[in-house]
Amino acid sequence: MNDQRRETALSSILRQARRTAPGTARALDAGGAAGTDALTGVVWQHTRAPVITYDPSRRAFTALVSRSAVYDEKGLFPGGGPVKVDRCLSYTYSRLPGPEWTSKVTVRDRDVCRPGLQISKRVALARLRIKNLYAEDLTRPGVRRALDPTGHLRYFEVEDAVRRGRTVTVTVLVRAGLEASAPTGQCYRFTRRVEPDGAERSVTAVPVAASRCRAA
Asked: Over the stretch 161-195, which tens digit does the pLDDT of each residue have?
């Protein structure tokens, strides 16, 4: 009985993903001739995938993300209850051979999504540290010190920090791991408004094309 409940929950994750994926393809169609960064943002808005890559030869985006569902486990003895199950999904959006974007969702081994989970945690950490920086420290060296105080972790590679008016944009390569078998990482753009002292600060983080990060 519990095995059946588990399989039903896992199947629901895939069904939901396949229902929503065409909507992302339509949004990409609406993007028209927008650049890779903008289209990467469209994929992120619809999938919230921490890792999104683009293959120009195939004109295809691949988004890796872990999805979860909850089912009620029943037991002969007290102690049952809600159980969460996870599934690693790969969303592929391609524009060849036709002019319109098409979508495909496949199930991957859970290990494939583990680097993305690590990257997601480090992006949250980077957002917090950038949010807490003084305005004068929103420079490339200042952000680098905030993200890697010792200079030895190397999970963050700060590419640049550009201020235009009251907005600072920081581009960072966020790595999942440093071992040779781990993916290099994902390039992210962090945007923070420079508000007056005492005002609430906010930071957005969106994945961008790998070409934005020289170290990728």
From this structure: 999 999 999 999 999 876 655 566 899 999 998 87
Measured CA to CA, the distance from residue 137 to residue 139 in angstroms comes to: 5
CA dihedral of residues 141, 157, 46, 22 (deg, nearest 10)? 150
Instruction: Return phi, psi of residue 3, to 5°.
Output: -60, -40
CB environment 170-197: b (16+ within 10 A), e (fewer): bbbbbbbeeeeeebbbbbbbbebebeee
Cis link prior to 97 (omega < 30° from 0)? yes
What does the alpha-carbon distance between residue 75 and residue 112 come to, in Å, rounded to a whole number?
A: 32
Instruction: Say which DSSP state 175 is in.
Output: P
Listed residue (75, 78, 93) closest to 20, CA to CA? 93
- Rounded to 10 degrees, what is the CA torsion of 13, 15, 17, 19? -150
Q: How many other C-beta atoms can be found within 10 angstroms of the C-beta atom of residue 76?
A: 6
The amino acid present at 49, given as its one-letter code, is A
Tokens representing residue 172 in the block = 């960072």
